[in-house]
Amino acid sequence: METKSQTATETPPILRFLERILFRAANTTTEDIYQITTTPLTSSSSSNTSNAITQFQIFSFLPNQTEEETNTEPLCNGEIIINTMSMGNQQCRTVVVSGDLTAVGLEANERGTLDPKEECITWCNGSQWVVHARVVEDELESYVGMNVTNMDMLTPAQLKLQMLFSKFDTDLDGVLNFSEFVKLDQATEDDPQEMTEASFHQIINIVQSVRENDNDRNTENVGLDLIDLTCVYVGPVAEMFQTNLNADFAAVFPQEAKVAFIFEAFDRDQDGFWSPEEEAEYVTSTGRGNEALKWFRNEDGTTAVGITAVMPLYLDDDSPFFEELENDFQLAGEKVFGNGSEE
Predict the structure, then answer these.
(1) Averaged confidence pLDDT in the chain
(2) Are residues 246 and 257 in contact, defined by beta-carbon separation less than 8 angstroms?
């Protein structure tokens, strides 16, 4: 993941956060990501006001682009004017961004206010550019189920990530340290290569490049927390390392992985849950009839359709379907891959 280098070293302190931030438009469907670089120009002062003028350039950014593929030409540019007014012992600063920004979907004479504290830009039309890494962080928290308090609402992917993390966080400190991550690597690789502490710290640094603006990130202990581990398995970092969540989960939890495969085979819309129609298809396909439904019933009579409701159906010793896992796993394979196909 490459980002542009700053073209000057004398960036005003109030703008230094720009050196490490990617922006994207808030509350839109666009996935365009931009990097802003700055070049200081002039500074003027009077008795009670001063203006620092900085030129900025906006570049498009693609998470997977190589340094050779990086576009060296900016999409557009303009000026950032920092107005500072002294009132007694207090200083009031406003940061105004202006320029022809039609290339990024804004106006020819666009103006906006940059808030260094909130790290966002509010344009004249009321729209905002926000820190991309924060948006990624929110998406990762949603993906990993950090805010899910009801276990019945975990998706298969969330359950796999949480089970893998819990399995190897043996000291329960909330992060996978070097030795714990080595054990995870050894447990999930057919021919594991020796991992050094230097390579482990390189992984941490790559993950931190995605999460650098996350104030809630665990920094007390050196290692990977649950969302860090999600980065390893999801998105551009996963593509870089060519990780496979399903394969690694199956290597550590083979029986649970078969249940997850069955569940996902009947989750036709892949939203992580069974709709009543998907649940009915499972019951009919396996020949269980209404006898199986009691395993999905909550105390209030509602039907749980998450992966955690299906796990005990096959893995609880007192379940009447305890011996049916292999048959249903084969049935799911035929459903996904077709008759006569191997997984």
Answers:
(1) 78
(2) yes
- On whether the CB atoms of residues 93 and 115 are closer than 8 A, the answer is no
Sign of CA dihedral 99, 104, 106, 112: negative
Q: What is the pTM of this model?
A: 0.58
148 contacts 158 by C-beta, under 8 angstroms: yes
Write out the DSSP string of 156-206.
HHHHHHHHHHHHH-TT-SSSB-HHHHHHHHHHH-SSPPPPPHHHHHHHHHH
Q: Buried (b) or exposed (e) across 79-110, using 16+ Cβ within 10 A? A: ebebebeeeeeeeeeebebebebeebebeeeb
What pLDDT digit, counting tens, does each position of 223-263 carry?
999 989 998 998 778 888 889 999 999 999 999 999 999 99
Among residues 313, 314, 317, 275, the alpha carbon closest in space to that of 294 is found at 313
Q: How far is CA 63 from CA 26, 73, 103, 322, in A?
A: 18, 17, 20, 45
**The residue to which tokens 């499972």 are assigned:** 282
Q: Read off the pLDDT of residues 209-225 as tens digits, 9 standing for 90 and up.
A: 777 655 555 556 689 99
Question: How would residue 326 be classed by pLDDT, with cut points 50, 70 and 90?
Answer: very high
DSSP readout, 284-335?
HHHT-GGGGGGGGB-TTSPBP-SHHHHHHHHH-TT-TTGGGHHHHHHHHHHH
